[in-house]
Amino acid sequence: METTPLDPSLPGVRLLQSWIREQLPISIGLNGQEAIEGRLVWQDPEFLAVEWSGSSRPILVNRRQVTVIRSLG
To answer: What predicted TM-score, i.e. pTM, was given to this entire model?
Structure first.
């Protein structure tokens, strides 16, 4: 499966980048699962890296499973 590059001209990509810079807490809703809350550390075309509070390592969330991303800050 081929991955398309992350397009920084898209408003959603720019908004997530600003949330990363500001270290805002977020909530990510996933298909058929409870929401994940934490801080977005980085993004690429396939995954979002989310750091839970108190955790030293991020978890990877596949973009295809995401239904909604909200800022909590």
So the answer is: 0.87
